[in-house]
Design a protein that fits this description.
The chain contains 9 helices and 9 strands. It has 255 residues and is of the alpha/beta class. The strands form 2 sheets. A 7-stranded mixed β-sheet has the order 3-2-1-4-7-5-8, sandwiched between helices. The structure holds guanosine-5'-diphosphate-alpha-D-mannose (GDD). The site of guanosine-5'-diphosphate-alpha-D-mannose has 27 residues, from β1, β2, α3 and α7. It comes from Solirubrobacter pauli.
Length: 255
């Protein structure tokens, strides 16, 4: 495997989950760097992460001044991981919805050359536990809508458990992604597919969080609904060739 593994954990009020998720990652991938990207959580998640980092040399904390959204937290985390020489960069929820034990299965195809590996709820063997009917329907409809509008075959376009090769993040100029939440996930995966790179789906079981609250909202769902067609047809759609001409071979620092 060429390069170190960096797991990015965006956090907003995840103090109740942080120790368990970091412990789970350590058990699954002992050599991984873990980067907590905290948006000044009122519940003290950032300070807890700082204390934990004093006992774990591979645990890092990025503090941001206030709640800026999932997408911005990730792009800041990506930039930091790339600057530090990451070979593989993983997106993962900090609330144990994503099982840390699945990490080796996400990393293996990337180590074999896949540009992006998606932890997929909607491929054979994947699934969701503890979601109500309403959220199941919204997620299914949202994924089906995005697949049709974008004309792609990937089954889980909105999931947030994924492993990028570092060169993939540079090639897609991830820092320029504009969407948040579900839309952010669709946007990054669509950019990888637009470059003709290999995207692999591995089945995962998503478990609804038991502690803390989801930060997703109707606003974020609506944002995804209008941003998806814009990704393919809008005047500001991302064009791989233009990005290449601009020299999208390095992620700029967060802007
Ligand atoms: N730093 C930071 N972290 C945030 C923010 N908003 C959310 N997070 C963190 O991002 C992770 C996911 O947030 P949730 O609010 O729990 O998301 P969800 O509703 O369960 O959505 C998940 O599933 C979706 C697909 O159904 C995914 O699209 C989404 O990315 C995420 O994985 C959690 O660790 C949460 O603390 C923010 O503004 N800033």
């Amino acid at each position: 495997m060429d390069g170190s593994v960096w797991v990015i954990l965006p956090t907003y009020n995840e103090a109740a989950n942080l120790e368990a998720v970091v412990g789970g990652i350590r058990a699954a991938v002992p050599e991984a760097h873990i980067l907590v990207v905290d948006d000044n959580s009122p519940d003290g998640t950032g300070q807890l992460a700082d204390r934990m980092a004093t006992a774990d040399a591979l645990l890092h904390v990025l503090h941001r001044p206030g709640k800026g959204g999932l997408g911005r937290a990730y792009t800041a985390g990506f930039a930091h991981a790339l600057e530090q020489g990451a070979g593989y960069v993983i997106e993962m929820d900090a609330d144990l919805s994503h099982d840390p034990a699945d990490l080796p299965r996400l990393i293996a195809p990337a180590a074999d050359g896949a540009a992006l590996v998606l932890g997929s709820r909607y491929t054979t063997g994947g699934g969701i536990e503890n979601w109500g009917l309403e959220r199941r329907i919204i997620s299914r409809v949202g994924c089906g809508y995005a697949r049709r509008v974008l004309g792609v075959r990937v089954r889980d376009l909105t999931g947030g458990f994924k492993c990028f090769r570092a060169d993939t993040l540079r090639a897609i100029d991830a820092a320029s992604a504009e969407a948040q939440g579900y839309g952010f996930q669709v946007e990054l995966t669509y950019r990888v597919l637009s470059l003709g790179l290999t995207v692999v789906e591995v089945p995962i079981r998503f478990r609804e969080r038991r502690l803390g609250e989801s930060k997703m909202s109707a606003h974020i769902a609506l944002e995804a609904a209008w941003r998806v067609p814009a990704l393919r047809f809008g005047p500001r759609r991302w064009r791989p060739l233009e990005a290449a001409r601009r020299g999208a071979d390095a992620l700029p620092n967060e802007g």
